[in-house]
Amino acid sequence: MLLGVFLSISRLADVLVAGGCIRPTTLLAGLRHGTVSFKRLPVALLLTVSGLVVEPFPWLQSLLFHRRVLACACPDDPVVVIGHWRSGTTYLHQLLASDPCAATARNQFIIAPQAALILKPLLNHFLRHVMTQHRPIDAVSWGPDDPQEDEVGLARLTMDTHMAGIAFPQHYPRHFRRTVLHSSAQFERHLLHFTRLTWLYEGAGKTHLVIKNSVHTARIALLLRLFPRARFVYLYRRPLDSVRSLVQVKQRLAHLVGLQLPLSSLQQVEETAAAHDQLQEAYERSKHLIPSGQLLEVDYDDLVQSPHVTLQRIYRSLGITGWGTARTAIEASIAKSQTYQAEPVVLELEAEQRLKALLS
Fold first, then answer.
1. Structural domain of residue 56, as residue ranges?
2. CATH at 175
3. pTM
4. Closest of 185, 227, 188 to residue 210, by C-alpha
5. How many domains does the chain have?
6. pLDDT value of position 210
């Protein structure tokens, strides 16, 4: 009854895609990092129940696919889209993923990667009937086949992801340091496992793998250990614009899947601006590790104003094969995106003034 009052059907679907079907062991691990606010118990209940419903299937998937997963030879040269959140990474991911030769994590996979190999038809059918037309964090259209960043899928498997700070917003800086600026050997194993699952789920007949994850901006050394020939596209945007937009997104995510009450807009600005600087510093410290020819830095405005030229430059600079095949599909995706109208981001006056003071 409480859950039905709290969540409409469409909102329930949004919660499931953003954070549902989480493994119970992952959720229990999260409780060691923070307590659930009373008012957020309905969300906690939904996450728990959805995870319990799915839980028998990971055991079956492990039984049937264990050897195939271990033997899976993922491409060691994935195209990795990085850069601060709200810098055009989603748009670029959509364009790159429209290439029929590209494999990537998609919504129908990330909702339950621990069981997706055996539930593939069911997950696809389910999401086609329940997903809303637009993402709950902005006006971007989405569906089961649309690409999604791997951090969202990884959050089903481990609490050592950036999503921990979204689930527990009252402790965001601690989780940012723990999961973004640092990582563990266990997380590295989870990342490799997730990538192998992605390739098994999506890679048949594909020539290359596309990964999009803003957190990977601070994980360059880790990515190169796993994928020595990884090719990076780093997107950059005016910090004032990207941080302002991320403040709004984090507040919306806190209302959607947070297990604690959201921060005030002012505190959210201060924490998000600080995290922005720390992410950029981590990138600057580690980008020298990327071998020559495996990094391309792209301005957000170039991507938005000249997407066709920018995509062609990415393919050429990073040696991604198949531009002739990809071009038609990418142009169709560009044409579709022209109808998108970004929502204006308006913060409370005090929060906006503080943001400008921090980033001026």
1. 2-359
2. 3.40.50.300
3. 0.95
4. 227
5. 1
6. 99
